[in-house]
Amino acid sequence: NGNWKKTDPRIDKExxxxxxxxxxxxxxxxxxxxxxxxxxxxxxxxxxxxMLETLIIYYFxxxxxxxxxxxxxxxxxxxxxxxxxxYKIEDMKNIQENIxxxxxxxxxxxxxxxxxxxxxxKEAVESSxxxxxxxxxxxxxxxxxxxxx
Length: 149
Description:
mainly alpha, 6 helices, 60% helix
């Protein structure tokens, strides 16, 4: 009656560890980076942490070669999540069914944010102007991101 959900953290840990190892130990840092981006205080509903982790793991399970540049990988992750956020998301443990508990309005808000941020990050990745790149990344990650000097 307490709305408890079945879970087994050992399965999550093993799955995340396997995916991380298959990509040279870089996935965990990208999960942390994406969670940092998601936590920005911009008055928009946040993607639930477990759902975000699950989407990132699914992204990397289907990715054969990890690009060596973190900014490219992060941009691609945002694009992937943008494409998937409005749909059913299966629990990576196969214990729960759909873990996407967002309302339709929340999905639209988050999708709009993801698309805008994906376009910005893509522009930053493709730009050869360092000052412009830093300015864009500061927009994406907020005031904590260092300024160009």
